[in-house]
Amino acid sequence: MPLILLCGYPCSGKTTITEKLVEMLREEKPECDIEIVSEEEIARANQAYKGEEKDPREVIFKNTALEKQLRAQIKSDAERVLSRKKGISTGVVIVDSTNFIKALRYDTFCIAKSLGQKQAVIHCTTPESMCREINTKLGRYSEEVISDLIYRFECPNPDARWDNPLYEISLPDANFSPDPEEEFKISMKDLVSNIITDLLQSKTKVKQNKTTVITRAAAPGYIQLVEKATNKVINIILEAQSKGEEKMCLPNQEGISLQLAGNLQPWTQTTLAKAKRNFLAFLRSGQRATKVGEDEMCALFVGFLNNEAQRDALFA
């Protein structure tokens, strides 16, 4: 059951596209089991905002802690639905959310892969000016909040495996389109056709790898193994960096390396300690590989450090 993430600027038409996508998928594939994880519904379900007419996301996106809670709930709900529907081949899970942080898209990619499912991203490319105009009509966000969300939006990259396949669609602009409804209908038809071909009819299976296979019980001495391996890698990085080497290589592991030179910021004790904590959290979250030795754990940690989304988060 593939996972489809919507992403884009606020008020770029994500919910409109989601609703139309569901409608057209059900027309084309009546047997298709569709589940929606809605950012707005999750936000409104919070007891603190029940009964309020105004969209609670205005308050949530002004508060870092509340925003993190919302993202965590979206990720948790997506994982729960995917896990529950794991055996269903004719269906999709659609996450209707801003999904503006690529680290979140990477996390859901790992979740989907751990369950043997594909992930695709739909980028709503409606122009910023049009999004602001729609927001003004809806009265959803203040100028401060929408400007901040637009500024922080991390555009999906088709070269990144967690953003691929990537589909782009925009709400039609009535000022430039002679027939906006027909234009939107054609765009949606193309989108639905691609999703059916790439996700629902494709026989390509997602291969689970060591960093995404879920294993609930850790083997004895597992934490000690992780601690030893991460400390070993950190020491090798700092030593190689102090010698001015261009990259760090793990001893006796050909091809396992970490680039140190170029435009990359240097690693410090602080960023490496943060990376270690993130790696441990990653393993504890269920995306763990327990039946590995020290060398393999070292390689996993280096792979984690090499990940673009993780490294950007560390140096943010």
From TrEMBL:
Signal peptide segment: none
UniProt keyword terms in alphabetical order: ATP-binding, Nucleotide-binding
A GO term for molecular function: ATP binding
Xref: Pfam families: KTI12 (PF08433)
Recorded family membership: Belongs to the KTI12 family.
Protein name: Protein KTI12 homolog
Originating organism: Hymenolepis diminuta (Rat tapeworm)
Lineage: Eukaryota, Metazoa, Spiralia, Lophotrochozoa, Platyhelminthes
